[in-house]
Task: inverse folding
């Protein structure tokens, strides 16, 4: 939304839908791991401490269903599966960067 755009009820609903997507547990760490390049399942597990295999499987499927993660099967022996960001996810991450900068300037550290 460009600066100065009035915030009406429909815009608020759109914002809330976006927050519902990014606010689900593990979404942020998974998207950040994917932003570093194509990853295999075990790499995500290593980059997202504390996530269980079933949780990671579920989140990857949900993010794929939302069009934020692309699953690619590489025919080899054994078969390899990688997960990468879609252009929509890259756009989402770029939109979240100003929020992260605001957080650094305005909010106390998490452990404070």
Result:
């Amino acid at each position: 939304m460009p600066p100065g755009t009035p915030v009406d009820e429909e815009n608020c609903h759109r914002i809330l839908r976006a927050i519902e997507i990014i606010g689900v547990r593990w979404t942020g760490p998974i998207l950040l791991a994917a932003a570093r390049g194509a990853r295999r399942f075990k790499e995500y597990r290593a980059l997202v401490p504390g996530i269980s295999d079933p949780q990671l499987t579920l989140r990857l499927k949900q993010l794929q269903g939302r069009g934020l993660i692309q699953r690619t099967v590489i025919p080899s022996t054994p078969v390899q599966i990688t997960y990468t960001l879609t252009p929509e996810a890259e756009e989402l991450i770029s939109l979240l960067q100003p929020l992260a900068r605001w957080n650094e300037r305005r909010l106390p550290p998490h452990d404070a």
Remarks:
- Residues 10-106 form a domain with the Arc Repressor Mutant, subunit A fold (CATH 1.10.10.10).
- The mean pLDDT is 89.
